[in-house]
Queue: 2 jobs
Job 1
Amino acid sequence: MILVTGASGNVGGALVAELAAQRRPVRALVRDAGKTTQRHEVQFVEGDLNRPDSLSEALADVEAVFLLGGFRDMPGVLAKARAAGVAHVVLLSSRSVVGGHADNAIVKMHMTGEAAIDASGIDWTFLRPSGFMSNTFEWLEQLRAGDVVRAPFGGVPIAAIDPRDIASVAAAVLTRREQYGRSHALSGPAALLPADRLEMLAQILDRPLRLTAQSDAEARVEMSRTTPAEYVDAFFRFFADGEFDDAPVVPTVQEITGRPPRTFEDWATDHAEAFR
């Protein structure tokens, strides 16, 4: 049995669907099973990664876990997993950890997760993707109000990846002994500016969309309304101060899955209705 945490999210949901399509036994961890669309080929189990004691049912008879990082008691979660007999953990991390500064809150979060798994005694594989194409959903409210998108870090290219490609890589490495102890950097096929993404979205939606790049001061104020200060600082260190370059394109998706990563046009076409 494979347990997928974050099963209601972009990556976890895609992974559950892929494993089910492959007819591999999959259990989906969710906080509220009543809010899910039940499928006979998937077991939905309630639990909370912030409360390791809530995971006993979810971990029963599980061989491998796809695990999100960033939870309060990662050692506690991993202790429960090891006690349950889990043999392999695939962690969703970030490529910002490579050469990253441990005092940056985002880097620290992912480094802490990786270190906890390394210390757990469970065999592991780390997936370190670039930024997600699905972050474009942050523009939904603005696009419902008009054709102008105000976005931070307008001059920063990111080789964003479709979450479904992360899920495909995860499906390919889960339970495979040759993947134990390996770390994989992942990216999409091209480094794009916010304006590049918006132009592609405009063509798909047939709308005259245009981008207004926010000043750093304006962006900081707006981000601080919804994001803790230490994470706002981390993003500014990444993209305003140049501490992290998320533009490099790497061939890992093709190497592991046998097919090229999806383009942003692919992602936007598949999610066009959400923006209409």
Note: The chain has a mean pLDDT of 93.
Job 2
Amino acid sequence: MDAEIVKDVSDIKINNGEEDVVDPWNVTSTSQEGVDYDKLIKRFGSSKVDEELMDRFQKVTGKPMHHLLKRGVFFSHRDVHSILNIVEQGKPFYLYTGRGPSSESMHVGHLVPFIFTKWLQDVFDVPLVIQLTDDEKFLWRDLTLENAKKLARENTKDIIACGFDVEKTFIFSDLTYMGRCTNFYENILRIQKCVTFNQVKGIFGFGDSDVIGKISFPAIQAAPSFSTSFPFIFGNNKIPCLIPCAIDQDPYFRMTRDVAPRLGYSKPALLHSTFIPALQGAHTKMSGSDSNTAIFLTDTPKQIKTKVNKYAFSGGQASIEEHRKLGGNTKVDISYQYLRFFLEDDDKLEEIKKSYESGAMLTGELKKTLIDVLTPIVTEHQQRRAKVTEDLVDEFMSLRPLKFKHSPHQS
């Protein structure tokens, strides 16, 4: 048994007296600074994205480093060096990421993994599969199957609007793909046969009253890690996989990495991101089910301005005089934290940090800066999404060969 597989639910929850909880469904912290990610790395047994790895990325890709990597938003990994080795050897790999469609509109936090995944696809020129776990949301949420499928299509439009190349990207809904590709279901069964009931209970904390669909679901999220789940893309070739995802999804792939060698596959490599905090503070992440905790991709400029001004937790002092004297705390200030995700200019971000911490910049000015950064991002996304037709959604979700260097379907 691989040491990475989790034997007890305490291994996926940091709950050692500090009450930080991180699992696929809950993220909470008692600290105003949010989750302690260094402790999370130790607890999960992953590796830190360090200078050596970033230097290798830059050397192998020949491209400037993405700001989300430089700033530690993608902070943890598993076996990314092995992917870079594969690239240096001229061998293929593919990307896999996903989205759980729980609401019609995604929020800006949901954009983060897709922004970074698109960068990875562009710099490595590799195929990408994107899983929409509408079956998971049906099991965990009060949704009908029809509504779950509808939300998956709506979220697909937001994903397409991020700019993915239809010739290199396959987007699929579990509810529709399961019946269209027997290879996918066969891999799910192989995974299910390798993981015991006690193991899946220990990994995910399932209880005796949980419905059996929840017990079996992890194998469905694991299966896209194996390239033979997509024979129309990869044929029968077993090609390694890199998964960019938020750190709360890691338990699924620790299970997958334990199973992979027993089924003759490479362990999937992972790049983990931090969470974008709720507007009210870093105690929890943005929520798609609470409109006041997040900036949604459907929000108007007026709504963005109102939400930031009204709800964004401030790291400033109680009075202007005190703030000028003591400065603000960027570690807890939500406006500054959001700028770390969405303001690409490193020099401008550093200038803002120094100005706010010195007291030269007030909270209201910092909030205005965030509004000025977020508003065009959301507005331009809405413009691109408006151009996504139902036919284009069908094209992205159609079973077809993708164009990439090592495609077995190339003539």
Note: DSSP finds 19 helices and eleven strands in the chain.
